[in-house]
Design goal:
- An 8-stranded mixed sheet has the order 3-2-1-4-5-6-7-8, sandwiched between helices.
- With 317 residues, it is α/β, with parallel strands linked by helices.
- The protein has 2 domains: 3-191, Rossmann fold (3-Layer(aba) Sandwich); 201-314, N-(1-d-carboxylethyl)-l-norvaline Dehydrogenase, domain 2 (Orthogonal Bundle).
- 53% of the residues lie in helices and 13% in strands.
- It has helices spanning 3-10, 24-35, 47-66, 74-78, 87-91, 105-118, 134-137, 172-184, 201-217, 223-238, 243-250, 255-272, 281-294, 300-314, and strands at 16-20, 39-43, 81-84, 94-99, 124-127, 147-152, 161-166, 188-191.
Length: 317
């Protein structure tokens, strides 16, 4: 379907999102935005990649329909998506370009330089990189103020959180604009205040994975048993409450009490792996302050009951 016919079908005020790179992440992002009502233009340098992505896109949309997760017909959603081998066509009038090409710095820098010329002058240029800092991506660019990282949980069409990582040179206007677009796309943006390799998602994931490798190496547990502990225990709980709230609700008196009781043991476990990152009194006080802003200690019992009800409803069995 032509772009003009798509615009006529859904209304001229609908924003356009360009996805540059039609791999699995690009397809996932395309579904996220099309499902939210955006016009989506999928681009890849290879026509074969586009053809494969088109099939994958349709299959995932059908999967959403079978699960009852679409508010419209698959055909209506797919009508908002067009496929392009021309980068100029793909980025025309785009409010945001989501770069999803392979994880190679030189390739991403080259594409971002191309997008700086071809995309609209006010378009957000967001990279899906898993670890490369936005400063590295923007090195030598004359549009560094528009470049940031939009790192999704994988797959983004099923996991609705995204890290928004600006460089020190990113214009705050574009951070705000990216967050607004992602929110309207049904994602929850988390702005990472300081750029670090791997951002937050992969650092948390990596910490668990490093320990898992060590436990297998040391003969403590098998690969299958690690996965069982996570899927039947940690993962189920984390599907309801995150690690800080888990600690807060696991010990009467809240997270400050948890740190007093468990902090020394966690410090010893970290030291065993050569890590020296103690939970200082100041750090525990800051974490406690933030938790008490979220949950007054007088509401602790009620929140524990809520957690248990959530686990009963979605995870037990």
């Amino acid at each position: 379907m032509s772009t003009a016919r798509v615009q006529q079908a859904v209304g001229p005020a609908v924003s356009t999102i360009a996805i540059s790179g039609a791999g699995s992440i690009g397809v996932s992002f395309g579904i996220v935005f099309a499902r939210a009502g955006y016009l989506v233009r999928m681009w890849d340098v290879e026509g074969t990649a586009l053809a494969r992505a088109n099939q994958e896109f349709s299959a995932k949309v059908a999967q959403l329909a079978r699960a009852g997760r679409l508010k419209e017909s698959p055909e209506a959603l797919l009508a908002r998506v067009t496929w392009h081998e021309s980068l100029d066509e793909a980025v025309e009038s785009a409010a945001l370009v989501q770069e999803c090409i392979p994880e190679r710095l030189e390739l991403k820098q080259r594409l971002l330089a191309d997008l700086a010329v071809r995309a609209p002058a006010d378009a957000v240029l967001a990279s899906s990189t898993s670890a490369i800092t936005p400063s590295a991506l923007a090195e030598g660019s004359n549009v560094a103020g528009r470049i940031l990282v939009g790192h999704p949980a994988n797959p983004p069409w099923l996991l609705p959180v995204i890290e928004v990582v600006p460089s020190p040179r990113t214009d705050p206007t574009y951070i705000e604009r990216a967050c607004d677009i992602y929110k309207r796309g049904g994602l929850t943006p988390v702005v990472v205040r300081r750029e670090i390799e791997g951002f937050v998602f992969n650092r948390l994931q990596g910490a668990l994975l490093r320990e898992a490798y060590c436990l297998v190496r040391d003969g403590v547990v098998s690969v299958a048993e690690v996965d069982a502990i996570v899927t039947l225990g940690l993962g189920r709980r984390w599907g309801v409450v995150g690690p800080f709230e888990t600690a807060d609700l696991n010990t009467r008196g809240g997270i400050a009490s948890h740190a007093r009781k468990m902090g020394p043991a966690y410090a010893r476990m970290g030291a065993e792996r050569g890590q020296n990152d103690p939970w200082t009194e100041a750090l525990v006080a800051e974490v406690t302050r933030q938790r008490r802003e979220i949950l007054d200690i007088k509401d602790w019992d009620a929140r524990v009951q809520w957690r248990d009800e959530q686990l009963l409803n979605c995870c037990a069995g």
